[in-house]
Design a protein that fits this description.
48% helix; Uridine Diphospho-n-acetylenolpyruvylglucosamine Reductase, domain 2; alpha+beta; globular; 2 domains
Length: 481
């Protein structure tokens, strides 16, 4: 799997020759700018379409906010390498998350971010994931049992729904030490509260104006009630985790989940961490780890179902690695799922679930040859940047074999350096390792036990932007092998 953090391939800035006013871009309206031209459910697609017309650097105005839209990989890599000192996360995005959800690593900046990064990485080390692996195996077996039962009854499996519930069960087990089994119990109140709050955060991020600052309709008031319920539940989870650690001191050296690891780190003398840091980052993991992983798996299944040759090769590899078992039980064998890994790479290239990276200038900065004033927002288009790099032949095709060519790996010519599925630089996604383990567990289980059938009579699958790229449907059927 692509692991470079894009430090190679970045270059010193050339002298700035242009300003915001020099950039091309779509004409807007007084006061609103380009706000009313963007459909929130297809936000990323509109920006990509404008990039096709106006190039790798163009300008927008969203209300009174200046926005530069970027889709050139060298400039993108340089900007990400300059975080968090020159660029911060979008204040609009950070504000929406902090007001409704939590304060954690995702929204932290500067020295606070550096401190919290150390805390979070303590909870996501390969050792923590290894200790969590038996739980992940159990959750994968539960998913398999549900699907086998449905297929044998002749029932249609709602893959999107089940993948989302599975991902939530995984992240709640890891981040909170709780098995809510939302896969079998979809009416769980905590799941409903999390889903509702996540939806409101996405709505705020893409809203034309921050209307909630002036008045709070019923949905916004309901969001605050649900937020308080989530916080009370998490306080209970922390109390339970502390009790487990007290009863079993071995957990201090071998924590079984992220919450225990965070609490151990927080309790170390001079750590500087507080319970608020623990709560904020446990909640951040839940919000960051549900839709991203489930949608990546969904898009991969979407491609595999339409490319039976690729699916057959994934199945052959899964059979060899899993042997007679229906689910992988040997953590050390994850790396042997190499072809599945490159198929995942290819799905993320075509359907990056996080399609944009929003960065706001903290000081006078530069993007390419453009001088950027403080407060200007830069929207980096992940998929468009990869397209513009011209690094892939037949780029629109789903062809995992392109990743098997080792000739350019870790060199300037490596096509992987044009991809940013997990961000880049110091703010490289800390949950990357967990996400890839989840993907391998689920997809190898599917390939070992089922075949995929694509419903070609179904309407075309559309991308919806709800903070991540979500398929509006997944016309894929499971059949037992």
């Amino acid at each position: 799997m692509y692991t470079a953090e894009h430090k190679a391939g970045t270059k010193p800035h050339v002298a700035a020759r242009r300003t915001f006013a020099d950039l091309p871009g779509p004409a807007g309206l007084p006061v609103f700018g380009n706000l009313l031209q963007i459909d929130s459910l297809h936000y990323h697609r509109q920006l990509e379409q404008w990039a096709e017309r106006y190039g790798t650097l163009y300008r927008l105005r969203l209300g009174g906010k200046r926005v530069i839209v970027l889709s050139e990989h060298t400039a993108m890599a340089t900007a990400m390498r300059e975080r968090p000192d020159i660029w911060r996360r979008s204040s609009r995005t950070a504000g929406a998350i902090e007001e409704l959800a939590t304060r954690g690593l995702f929204t932290a900046e500067g020295e606070d971010w550096r401190m919290q990064r150390k805390l979070v990485m303590r909870g996501l080390t390969p050792e923590v994931i290894r200790n969590f692996f038996p739980t992940l195996t159990m959750l994968t077996e539960r998913l398999l049992t549900r699907w086998q039962r449905a297929v044998r009854r002749g029932e249609q499996v709602d893959l999107l729904r089940d993948l989302k519930s599975f991902a939530l069960d995984v992240i709640l087990s890891l981040a909170m030490g709780q098995d809510l089994n939302t896969l079998e119990q979809p009416d769980n109140p905590l799941q409903q509260d999390i889903e509702f709050l996540f939806g409101r955060v996405a709505r705020r991020i893409t809203a034309p104006l921050p209307y909630w600052r002036w008045f709070k309709p019923a949905a916004e008031r309901e969001a605050m009630v649900r937020k308080e319920r989530i916080e009370r539940a998490i306080a209970g989870f922390i109390a339970e985790a502390r009790a487990r650690i007290a009863a079993n001191p071995e957990l201090r050296t071998k924590p079984s989940n992220m919450l225990e690891a965070l609490l151990v780190a927080r309790d170390e003398p001079g750590s500087g961490f507080t319970d608020a840091h623990v709560v904020g980052n446990a909640v951040t993991m839940v919000f960051a780890g549900e839709d991203t992983t489930s949608n990546t798996i969904a898009w991969l299944l979407y491609f595999l179902a339409q490319h039976p040759g690729v699916a057959a090769r994934v199945a052959e590899e899964s059979d060899a690695v899993l042997g007679s078992r229906p689910v992988l039980r040997d953590f050390s064998r994850l790396d042997a799922l190499h072809y599945l890994e490159v198929a995942t790479n290819e799905a993320m290239r075509l359907k990056p679930v996080a399609p944009m990276i929003a960065m706001e200038a903290l000081q006078p900065a530069q993007i390419g040859d453009v001088a950027v004033d403080p407060g200007t927002l830069v929207m980096g288009l992940i998929r468009q940047t990869c397209r513009n790099a011209n690094a892939f032949e037949d780029a629109a095709a789903f062809r995992p074999e392109r990743w098997l060519n080792a000739a350019h790996q870790h060199t300037e010519g490596d096509p992987a350096r044009t991809m940013f599925p997990f961000g880049g630089g110091a703010r490289f996604c800390p949950g990357r390792y967990l996400a890839l383990v989840e993907i391998k567990m689920v997809v190898s289980m599917i390939a070992r036990n089922f075949t995929l059938e694509f419903d070609r009579a179904a309407p075309p699958v559309d991308e919806r932007f709800t903070f991540t790229i979500t398929p509006d449907s997944l016309p894929v059927r499971l059949a037992e092998r």
